[in-house]
């Protein structure tokens, strides 16, 4: 078996979650030769495959009110035209699933807005992509982008985790659909989401926006990864002293739950769930009930302990800045779809979790896939020399213990409630100082080309080397993404949407703007109001 394989495609899609599947399908439907590579298995990896999915699926007459409400909730940072376009694309494309997915029926019509079972949805999307001619390579994580001398994208390369060895793909267009990252918070389905695509994009020179909006939390049973918030809306919560936590709505109650958790354990009993909803729950979210029932807990009558799990940039907002409506980045031929891209234009400073994010996967996947296919038709993959854009790979001296300690530190600084939900300038700078030190350590260890062609062989030894190199690469990506988040949060000296600064509790009209972030060794930020651009100095840690 060869240590290395070379591939050619019109369009290369990196990531096999919901956005990647829609992107690959859309490009293939336009006649492009498409290869999709996934770190895991397309159809089961990513957060959609674990969820009960809803979509931003509204008739035209209901959209103006929805846009107005979401814009207010998002701190007036949204772009109404982009919101309308996203809803319209979901409205057009979801009926295509009618022959394959048994939608719930409401008032005699298919209910395409809610109650979509993620595993079945992703199984359908994988099958549709394959029938359209997409070549799917599972367990083939990408580790670097490749660019032509003029800076345009030339393809990507990576590792074959099962066979051993490496791969490289020349492509006219590349779509990043690698998802967001929850910084290893144990969010269900997000263990593979380690900001790999963000790091590849940063090495190619792109910017990020909205990274400070990465502090959304979801209730979960303690010691569980089951982070589906819907059932917890019907709970009665008590703090460590047995006092009921009273709040007007579940959303406004999250900070109270967080404050109580900082003090001690919090319990919930789902005694307020209507009987009709209880009956539907096993069908809509079966993986919510099973772990509780197997441990002898009746969640509707027995109090059980809960925690809050950070969702980072997954239910947050930040990601790669898009340069045009077709989801192209600042690098020619490089597109971004789904959670790896910034969703600030459609949800602002609020969470896009649930319906907007799912619709965004459909819309951005469609736009990027069609645009990438057009580029491939106009400019077939050239056999010109290409240069890799990976500064940080993995080296033999990097041990599992080294990596695990760094990952724990990043997860703690980006997920602890008193550091990330209740932010302050001093606290953010302390976290940034830690991550800046980690950056110096990991980049000393992980510089070089340990996953380049010929370095990772096949067979058992090659597979072990590939996994070790990938883990080192993931660790670098997590530190990098954490630094972008912290720099952005320090610059936004106000509270807006999910970003809450205890030392700046009010909105500041100066920050009705986008905070852009970029850079690796030196992280730069820019506060960009509608009509002007102000570049900030690197944040001193």
Describe this protein's structure.
The chain has 541 residues and is α+β, with helices and mostly antiparallel strands. The protein is built from 14 helices and 21 strands. It has helices spanning 18-29, 63-73, 80-93, 118-131, 196-204, 250-263, 275-284, 286-294, 344-347, 355-378, 400-415, 417-421, 425-446, 459-491, and strands at 4-14, 34-37, 52-53, 105-106, 109-110, 116-117, 135-137, 142-147, 153-159, 166-176, 208-209, 217-221, 236-238, 266-269, 304-310, 319-320, 334-336, 387-389, 514-518, 524-528, 534-536. Strands 1, 2, 7, 8, 9, 10, 17 and 18 form an 8-stranded mixed beta sheet that branches. A hairpin with a 5-residue loop joins strand 19 (514-518) and strand 20 (524-528). The radius of gyration is 22 Å and the shape is globular. The termini are far apart. Mean pLDDT is 90; it is low at 531-538.
List keywords for this structure.
single chain; 541 residues; alpha+beta; eight-stranded mixed beta sheet; 21 strands
């Amino acid at each position: 078996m060869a240590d290395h394989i070379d591939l050619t495609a019109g369009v290369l899609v990196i990531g096999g979650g919901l956005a990647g599947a829609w992107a690959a399908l859309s490009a293939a439907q336009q006649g492009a030769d498409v290869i999709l590579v996934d770190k895991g298995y397309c159809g089961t990896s990513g957060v959609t495959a674990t969820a009960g999915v809803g979509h931003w699926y509204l008739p035209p007459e209901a959209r103006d009110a929805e846009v107005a409400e979401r814009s207010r909730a998002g701190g007036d940072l949204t772009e109404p035209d982009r919101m309308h376009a996203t809803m319209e694309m979901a409205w057009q494309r979801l009926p295509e699933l009618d022959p394959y997915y048994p939608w719930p029926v409401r008032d005699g019509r298919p209910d395409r807005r809610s109650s979509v079972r993620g595993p079945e949805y992703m199984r359908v999307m994988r099958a549709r992509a394959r029938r359209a001619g997409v070549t799917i390579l599972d367990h083939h994580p990408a580790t670097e982008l490749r660019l032509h001398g003029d800076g345009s994208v030339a393809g990507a390369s990576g590792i074959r985790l099962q066979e051993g060895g490496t791969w490289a793909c020349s492509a006219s267009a590349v779509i990043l659909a690698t998802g967001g990252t929850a910084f290893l918070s144990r969010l269900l389905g997000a263990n593979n989401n380690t900001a790999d695509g963000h790091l590849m994009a940063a090495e190619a020179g792109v910017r990020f926006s909205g990274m400070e909006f990465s502090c959304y939390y979801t209730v979960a049973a303690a010691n569980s990864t089951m982070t589906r918030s819907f059932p917890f809306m019907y709970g009665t919560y008590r703090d460590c002293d047995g006092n009921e936590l009273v709040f007007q709505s579940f959303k406004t109650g999250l900070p109270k739950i967080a404050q109580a958790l900082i003090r001690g354990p919090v319990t919930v009993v789902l005694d307020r769930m209507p009987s009709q909803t209880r009956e539907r729950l096993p069908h809509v979210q079966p993986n919510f009930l099973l772990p509780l029932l197997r441990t002898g807990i009746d969640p509707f009558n027995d109090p059980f302990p809960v925690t809050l799990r950070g969702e980072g940039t997954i239910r947050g907002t930040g990601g790669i800045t898009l340069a045009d409506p077709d989801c192209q980045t600042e690098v020619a031929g490089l597109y971004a779809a789904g959670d790896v891209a910034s969703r600030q234009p459609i949800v602002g400073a609020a969470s896009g979790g649930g319906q907007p994010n799912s619709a965004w996967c459909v819309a951005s996947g469609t736009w990027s896939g069609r645009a990438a296919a057009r580029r491939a038709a106009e400019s077939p993959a050239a056999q010109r020399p290409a240069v890799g854009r990976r500064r940080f790979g993995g080296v033999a001296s990097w041990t599992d213990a080294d990596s695990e300690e760094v990952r724990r530190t990043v997860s703690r600084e980006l997920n602890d409630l008193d550091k990330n939900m209740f932010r302050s300038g001093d606290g953010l700078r302390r976290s940034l100082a830690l991550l800046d030190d980690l950056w110096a350590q990991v980049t000393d260890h992980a510089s070089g080309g340990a996953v380049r062609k010929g370095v990772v062989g096949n067979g058992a030894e090659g597979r072990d080397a590939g996994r070790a190199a990938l883990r080192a690469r993931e660790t670098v990506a997590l530190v990098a993404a954490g630094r972008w988040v912290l720099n952005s949060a320090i610059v936004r000296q106000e509270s807006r949407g999910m970003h809450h600064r205890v030392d700046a509790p009010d909105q500041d009209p100066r920050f009705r703007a986008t905070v852009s972030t970029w850079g690796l060794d030196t992280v730069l930020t820019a506060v960009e109001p509608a009509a002007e651009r102000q570049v900030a100095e690197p944040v001193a840690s």
